[in-house]
């Protein structure tokens, strides 16, 4: 072993910061850090050090140079504070960076690998967990918001001539069916008309490429200009699209997937190296690798991509290698920023469309009767979820009598006893052509909090004050708000229906997913969902009686198609997502949602990665039990984060990354 290698290993044992020329050397050093007596690793290190010493002196001076002033001035600012929407996560990183190109992002990653620093990319701060935090190089992705166009292409943009024939724009749009003669749709329309309209619009699809830091609001506007729209959406449009994808954000609709499953291709910049097959392209000479990642049957023709490799390079001349591998794609789809920085994405979208929505009151007994399996539908999907493209409902946390007084639930009585006393509110939506004959602008608020604001003419801060100082009024406020949301045949652009229109800091939520398919035959079953609803009601009653703590919002139940992403909450099963909302400032609000999450594991619940408030832990193999395909995900993670560049509190808390520990003597 050379004396230089001995010194480097010795420095590592003492915790010294070692600067290296590439990710391969960094990975070996990290392995030696954990296993300092491994002779095979020492031999590999000798070879890599010789390669390092043989580099051009000018290259070496760049590798070992201190951070330049241009980096500090152009890409990163010091003494900056970042916080998420609710200020539950606050960081003061070494550098706050806002790149506007892949080249600038590369400079940040080079700085990180050279100085042994961590990098974390963040979007709009809509996550309440520590998933988007780092104390080192914080990357604000909002500058990466350019749409891929022919006249202003983004780096590595997929060209039509490298797509497989069936995915070309000409082929896809050539299959579009006309919509001019389609019937208007409202709440009373026949199933035949509903399905006719739905099938035409959902069959009119296209691909759309963009940099990944664009917000959903910006994306919706850009899609509309191209006569396109997202197939589905969550209730908030301030998120970046990559933030929504990386945490498996979703809308509602049992036949509609979450955001990550709308993605057909992505470009990832990372300091790790994929050890599987690369369909096209060669490795980079520097420490940063660029991969276009797709499933094995991806949209790109690998032979044509290889022939046009000079078209798929970064600004510094590095090749963007093509990976078409199911495990790699399904792992990266939902990776919470732990495998690199997603630079760009290709989505499969559909023709721009309008929705008609009816919101009506019900009770829990009637609602649960609606969501029982229907043997006449594929996989037993309930009739209400076949009739309406989007179906969801709100549930009050508290049972009340006809006078609005809270009913005490006897734990010795079956939960069904109290179902008629729990108010629910149904949201039922379908696609409709926008025609003057059925166009009806909304006359009621779009969300529960806005409904209460309008009814009492107060701000959400004053509402929280009222709830905290007169807590017994909360159940009545909840019911009044739900009553105010009733509406019929409201018609609007799809994204205006999806978007609930509430300020990002007016409330917070925890969200947990429950399987609604039987493992044995994939038939719909609400068993886990019903047991979860019963548990939420019991926990709410305990908090009310023992501590006068109240849930200041109804909770929402949405239905989502299964996902192929290994760490999606919907992985492997159609899923019911329960969102436990709370008005910001609610006394004991954080404790309530944490208590609910803890109680819901025993009902098969998987917490939303961005909304679990740091309560999910890797202890006792919990993550592996939640996600059966975790080992496949971890295998990809170990490669793409081999240098530890994307470690943060989340990866440590969940046991994805390991902290080195050495004690002599």
Give a structural overview.
- The chain is 32% helix and 17% strand.
- It contains 23 helices and 20 strands.
- An 8-stranded antiparallel beta sheet has the order 16-13-15-14-18-19-17-20, with helices on both faces. Strands 7, 8, 9, 10, 11 and 12 form a 6-stranded mixed beta sheet that branches.
- A hairpin with a 6-residue loop joins strand 2 and strand 3.
- The model is unreliable at 1-5, 7-22 and 57-73 (pLDDT under 50).
Summarize the structure.
The chain is an alpha+beta fold and 665 residues long. The protein is 32% helix and 17% strand.
**Major sheet, described briefly?**
8 strands, antiparallel
**Please, how many helices?**
23
Give the rounded overall mean pLDDT. 88
Q: What characteristic shape results from the CA principal axes?
A: globular
Radius of gyration: 26 Å
**How many strand segments?**
20
The helical percent reads: 25-40%
Distance between the termini: 23 Å
The share of residues in extended strands comes to 15-25%
Strand order of the largest sheet: 16-13-15-14-18-19-17-20
Secondary-structure-derived class: alpha+beta
Which stretches are low in confidence, meaning pLDDT under 50 for 5 or more residues running?
1-5, 7-22, 57-73
């Amino acid at each position: 072993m050379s004396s230089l290698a001995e010194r480097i290993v010795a420095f590592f044992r003492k915790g010294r910061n070692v600067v290296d020329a590439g990710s391969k050397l960094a990975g070996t050093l990290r392995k030696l850090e954990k296993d300092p007596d491994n002779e095979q690793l020492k031999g590999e290190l000798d070879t890599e050090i010789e390669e390092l010493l043989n580099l051009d002196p000018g290259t070496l001076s760049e590798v070992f140079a201190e951070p330049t002033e241009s980096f500090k001035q152009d890409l990163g600012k010091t003494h900056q504070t970042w916080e998420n929407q609710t200020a539950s996560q606050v960081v003061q990183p070494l550098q706050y960076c806002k790149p506007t190109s892949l080249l600038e992002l590369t400079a940040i990653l080079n700085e990180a690998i050279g100085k042994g620093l961590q990098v974390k990319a963040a979007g709009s701060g809509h996550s309440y967990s520590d998933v988007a935090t780092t104390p080192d190089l914080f990357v604000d992705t909002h500058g990466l918001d350019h749409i891929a166009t022919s006249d202003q292409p983004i780096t590595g943009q997929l060209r039509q001539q490298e797509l497989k024939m069936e995915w070309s724009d000409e082929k896809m749009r050539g299959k579009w069916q006309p919509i001019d003669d389609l019937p208007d749709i409202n709440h009373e329309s026949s199933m035949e008309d509903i399905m006719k309209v739905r099938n035409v619009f959902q069959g009119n699809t296209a691909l759309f490429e963009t940099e990944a830091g664009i917000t959903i609001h910006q994306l919706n506007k850009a899609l509309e200009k191209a006569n396109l729209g997202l197939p589905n959406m969550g209730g908030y449009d301030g998120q970046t699209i990559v933030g929504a994808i990386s945490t498996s954000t979703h809308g509602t609709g049992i036949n509609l997937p979450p955001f990550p499953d709308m993605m057909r291709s992505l470009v990832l910049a990372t300091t790790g190296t994929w050890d599987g097959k690369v369909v096209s392209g060669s490795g980079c000479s520097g420490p940063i690798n660029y991969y276009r990642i797709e499933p094995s049957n991806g949209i790109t023709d690998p032979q044509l991509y290889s022939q046009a490799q000079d078209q798929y390079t970064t600004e510094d001349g590095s090749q963007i290698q093509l990976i078409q591998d199911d495990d790699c794609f399904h792992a990266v789809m939902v990776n919470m920023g732990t495998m690199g920085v997603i630079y760009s994405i290709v989505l499969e979208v559909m023709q721009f469309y309008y929705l008609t929505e009816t919101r009506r009151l019900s009770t829990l007994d009637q609602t649960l009767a609606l969501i029982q399996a229907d043997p006449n539908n594929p996989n037993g999907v309930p009739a209400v979820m076949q009739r309406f493209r989007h179906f969801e409902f709100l549930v009050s946390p508290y049972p009340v009598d006809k006078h609005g007084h809270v009913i005490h639930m006897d734990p010795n009585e079956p939960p069904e006893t109290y179902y008629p006393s729990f108010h629910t509110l149904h949201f039922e939506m379908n696609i409709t052509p926008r025609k003057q004959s059925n166009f009806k602008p909304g006359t009621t608020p779009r969300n529960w909090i806005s409904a209460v604001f309008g009814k009492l003419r107060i701000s959400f801060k004053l509402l929280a004050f009222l709830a905290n100082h007169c807590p017994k009024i909360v159940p009545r406020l909840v019911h009044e708000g739900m009553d105010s949301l009733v509406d019929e045949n409201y018609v609007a652009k799809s994204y205006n229906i999806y978007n609930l229109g509430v300020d990002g800091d007016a409330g917070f939520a925890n969200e947990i997913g429950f399987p609604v398919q039987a493992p044995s035959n994939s038939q719909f079953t609400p068993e886990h969902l019903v047991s979860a609803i019963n548990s939420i009601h019991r926990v709410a009653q305990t908090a009310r009686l023992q501590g006068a703590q109240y849930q200041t919002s109804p909770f929402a139940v949405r239905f989502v198609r299964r996902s192929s992403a290994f760490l999606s909450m919907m992985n492997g099963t159609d899923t019911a997502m329960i969102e436990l909302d709370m008005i910001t400032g609610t006394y004991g609000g954080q404790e309530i949602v944490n208590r609910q999450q803890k109680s819901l594991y025993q009902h098969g619940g998987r917490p939303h990665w961005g909304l679990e408030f740091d309560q999910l832990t890797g202890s006792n193999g919990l993550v592996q039990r939640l996600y059966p395909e975790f080992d496949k995900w971890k295998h990809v993670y170990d490669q793409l984060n081999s240098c530890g560049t994307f470690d943060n509190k989340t990866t440590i808390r969940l046991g994805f990354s390991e902290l080195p520990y050495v004690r002599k003597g």
